[in-house]
Amino acid sequence: MSRLLMATLRGLGFLTAVVVLTLVTQIGGAVLLGAWVLARIWRPRGRRSLATAGLFTALYAAASLWVVPPLAQLGGRVPLPCTLSADAPVRPQNPIYCVLNRHYATPQVGAMLTALAGDLSRRYPGLQVAYLDANFPFIDGFPLLPHRSHDDGRKVDLAFFYAGPAGRPSAAITPSPIGYWGFEQPRPGDPTPCAGDPRTWTLRWDMPWLQHLLPARDLHEGANRAMVLWLANSGTRFGVERLLLEPHLQRRWGVEGGLIRFQGCSAARHDDHLHVQIRAFVGR
Ligand SMILES: [Zn+2]
User: How many angstroms separate the alpha carbon of residue 158 from the centre of ligand 1?
Assistant: First the structure.
C-alpha cells in the first residue's frame, strides 16, 4: 500500500475519532486535537500515536476534573454528584455517565434530585436515586445523542427501581448495566399506542435481541409510583414541568395525567427509565 494511501487512511481515522469523541463526550474531540498538537511539538521517541493516546487520556482526565466544572458553571450548569454523600443519596447508575461528562445540569435539577432522594429514602431507608444521561457541560442546543432533547441543562433521565433482596427497592439492579434498554413489556390489555406503527426507522428501539440477554427483574411498583408521584406533585416546587413515561406503566402505577406524558412513537421508549424536565429559571 502506498505511503500516501496509508497517510490518508490514518488522517480519516483520526478525524473520525475526533467526531465520535465530540458526539459522545462533547469535549473529547477538542482534547484529542490538543493531544495531537502537543505530541507533534513534543516529538516523543517511538510511535507518535501511542504518545497521542497517552496525552489524550491524561488531558481528558485533567480537563474533566479541574477545567470543565468551573467553566460549565459560568454557563449555568453544574455536575450532578458522581459519588454518594450523606445528605444526597444520588449517584449515576453507571460511572460511565460521569466519565463521559454526560452528568451536567442546572443547579435546580440537582436540588430537585436531592429533595426527591431525601423523600424516597425516608419511605425506603437506604434507597438511592440513580440518574442516567443528563446533559453535556456546555452550549444550549448541542445534542446529547441519541436523545432528542437533553440539550439545555434541564433534562435528566432516572433509573427505575427494581425489587431486590427481601423485596426491597433498588436502582442498582437494573436489567441493563447502563440503565437503558431493558424494557418492561406491556401486559395483556395494556395500552400499546405504537403497536400498529408501520415505520421501521424511528428512535423507538425495541431491541428484541437484547431483551433475551438481560436478566429478568421485577419493577418495584411502590417505589416507582412514589418517585413519579413526588415528581408530579412536590416536584413542581423544584420546577418539574414534564415527565415522560410509557402509557402502560402510567396505567399500572395509577399516575396518568397532569405532568406525566407519553413521548409519542417517534422517540425512545420510556419503560426502561423515567425522563424528567424542569422549567427554565429566569437568571440561571
Ligand atoms: Zn430523557
Answer: 8
